[in-house]
Input
Amino acid sequence: MPDRKLVIRNIGLILTGKIEAPVADGDCVVATNGRITAFGQEKDLDTEGATHVVDAMGVTLAPGLIDSHVHPVVGDYTPRQQQLHWIDSTLNGGVTTMISAGEVHMPGRPKDIVGLKAMAIFAQRAYDNFRPSGVKVLAGAPVIEHGMEEHDFKELAEAGVKFLGEVGLGSVKDGKTARQMVEWARKYGIQSTIHTGGPSIPGSGLIDADMVLETGTDVVGHINGGHSALPDDQIVCLCENCGKGLEIVHNGNERAAVLTLNTARELGKLDQIILGTDGPAGSGVQPLGILRMVAMLSAFGNVDAATAFCFATGNTARQRDLDVGILEPGWAADFVLMDQAQHAPGKSILESVELGNLPGVGMTIIDGEVRSLRSRNTPPATRLPSVADLSPMGS
Ligand SMILES: [Zn+2]
Output
């Protein structure tokens, strides 16, 4: 098979996803066979032999956005709100990777151990085999239940499971048991997250800061509540005492989100801030949820927009150990191309986001392939990228 070489030229602004250097010089990105190979000034790059060319028309390129917290069930359907194509709709909001925090909305979800393991392995396989509209859905996140033993986590890991569902959504509600299971999971390379805050829907429970700290998950799931947030002093305590992912979600408390961000900034921990939607949920599906979080946190949290985009890209990639979300040779060629929305105030796309406005998405690319054009969901972008026709004249 000949190499598939993508050249994206005429980029106006390159965002890297790297919080230590969120903006890169250059106007061009090259990817071969779905992986980034180079970026910078087009005149300095090897663009010979391109099989696909995108003319960015001066818009901004960023790594595809990552939603750190979703609850998928099957394909592009969610029974939670009886909605079809919510993942495709979210791709139109610039999200190219989603991480399951548990397939908890499966009707009749098994809670016996063999059943919950089977469902997790099934979900991991199903989304690995089928990407709705090209979106990478990292699913198969079992919810821990009493009676699980070390060998269960070993078996799950060997079968390809990489994430636990939110601790606290199952029968394990005490820190001691949860900590043991999280440690078993970690021993076999499975990451963990926890439901932080009050109950989300009838049947779920309260997880306070003491339980979060005792359990010691890799991510503090929805630190701003899902939806009911912990009291301020507990949120500050979690920011002070957790050295890993501090996840802010759209379906949480916005005031608690800003408190988390301000506290993390004061502590020099902005690299730990990651974003999710927590959708589908009682509050619905949010195709623009991640962009809305970027704009809201930038506007109210005194963070420049280029840095805020890192919360939804490189920060999540690093906390979650993913090969997406960072503009670097070797990383997946997953991008969102966007521009200042038509008639949005601000002198640039970044300033318009800092004023709380959403950018207009013009294109998404996953593994070097164009997956969507002008977003049907964002406000219209001022300029739109286009796919160049490489066919020879007259053919
Ligand atoms: Zn939750």
Notes: The longest helix spans residues 113-129.
